[in-house]
Write a structure and sequence with these properties.
The protein is of the alpha+beta class. Helix content is 42%, strand content 23%.
Length: 426
């Protein structure tokens, strides 16, 4: 295993790429009693279109989430029952770009790990099970659609994009959920639940040598077949699909989302550094301690506001989500703020110090460390182990040049601004 220093702290990350292509990241933390272990695949709702050898597949939206559900069904003992015996929490989550299965606890580590490796790599389904699951997922989708925050998030993506899979709900659309078949699930499982597309992350009270030994032994027969898998992407338009939509709902407050759609190619620089700068820009302009947020609340234009930075394969959505009783005035004020962004060098240096302090704190948080590794792996293809130095090396000039390239005023003129409002039904 390769030893990697984390931000020049005492803590080390141990990395190994196994012969079958599986990526293993281990972070032993001596002062912790708990552990957090995840086994995931770089396969999410985004990967609906792909090729197996020379055959192209376009799968229904929601199939990655459906597959996650089915992996929890076992003929003998299901994962929830197994982990409950040792007081260990187990769960899973499907996102746009990945599906992750994990457990967290403080005892029975070796057996818990062995079980995780078995249950994620074995799919047990029947036609009857698949049909039964459709009803369960459709009910889950119905419940989610009644949540104003979730509806706003889903509509924000749906209205921004034309073809990009980022526009679709991870849980899936009603008719597409109904269309999923046992064969579809098996095709996706075989294409993406293979070692060269998967990863294991273990953080906390673990023994690195024992862990890698168990992984190699339990997965000795887990191999890639000779099929060539290629993830395919849609060509996306630079304009937004629907510039404005207001939805009336039974809700106590009005929520809105205002976002600019930005083609990544116009911004230059590598994605890692670019996203740090964009996050910094949003934090300084409309973050929790920003002057603009304070003024918006003083004017009673919003009671809550948070920034958005959503990233598809080719575009960003940059903007905010807010709760308001005065939507028109707030929208106009937000547009003015984005078109007149000015960041001082003093504020830039201040936020760098804050972010460095946050990095120092995060290493002591097991789930945060695991999440950090996972995010880097999915977004960048590798773990960035020296984020403190990366933050310290940021340049004020690079940030200001990036803001100029975005040109929010021009984005608004060229149909690249979208607004979604969830307002109170009278």
């Amino acid at each position: 295993m390769r030893e990697i220093n984390i931000n020049n702290f005492e803590e080390k990350l141990y990395f190994e790429k196994l012969e079958n292509g599986l990526l293993v990241y281990l972070v032993p933390l001596k002062n912790k009693k708990n552990f957090y272990v995840s086994f995931g695949t770089k396969y999410g709702n985004y990967n609906s279109k792909f090729k197996v050898n020379d055959k192209t597949y376009e799968m229904p939206s929601g199939i990655a989430h459906f597959l996650e559900h089915k992996l929890f069904e076992k003929e003998k003992e299901n994962p929830f029952d197994f982990y409950a015996k040792s007081g260990t929490d187990v769960n899973a989550g499907t996102s746009i770009f990945y599906t992750n299965y994990y457990f967290t606890g403080n005892n029975n580590y070796n057996e818990n790990l062995k079980y995780l490796l078995k249950f994620v790599t074995n799919l047990e389904i029947t036609e009857k099970d698949v049909e039964k699951e459709k009803g369960i997922i459709l009910e889950e989708a119905r419940m989610v659609s009644d949540n104003p925050n979730r509806l706003l998030y889903d509509k924000t993506r749906e209205n921004a994009f034309f073809k990009d899979p980022y526009k679709y709900k991870v849980i899936g659309e009603k008719e597409e959920i109904k269309s999923i078949t046992k064969k579809d699930l098996e095709i996706c499982f075989n294409a993406f639940y293979r070692p060269d597309n998967m990863f294991i992350i273990a953080v906390g009270n673990i023994n690195k040598d024992e862990t890698i030994k168990i992984i190699k032994e339990e997965l000795k027969d887990f191999k890639n077949d000779n099929k060539k898998i290629e993830k395919l992407y849609y060509e996306e338009d630079d304009e937004v699909f629907i510039p404005y939509e207001e939805i009336k709902l039974k809700t106590e407050t009005t929520r809105l989302s205002l976002n600019y759609k930005v083609n990544k190619n116009i911004l230059g620089m590598d994605e890692y550094k670019r996203e740090i700068y964009l996050g910094m820009m949003l934090t300084l302009v409309l973050g929790s301690t920003s002057l603009a947020k304070e003024k918006l609340q003083e004017k009673n234009l919003c009671t809550e506001i948070s920034t958005n930075l959503l990233s598809s394969h080719s575009h960003y959505l940059i903007g905010v989500t807010a709760v308001t009783e005065n939507q028109d005035k707030l929208i106009n004020e937000l547009r003015r703020i984005f078109k007149n962004i000015k960041i001082s060098k003093k504020d830039f240096e201040r936020i760098k110090k804050v972010w460095v302090a946050n990095e120092i704190k995060s290493i002591d948080n097991i789930s945060a460390t695991s999440s950090d590794i996972l995010t880097d792996l999915i977004d960048l293809g590798e773990y960035k182990n020296d984020k403190i130095k990366d933050i310290q090396d940021l340049s004020y000039e690079e940030l200001t040049n990036l803001i100029k390239k975005i040109d929010f005023e021009n984005l608004e003129k060229t149909n690249k601004l979208e607004i979604v409002v969830i307002s109170k039904k009278n």
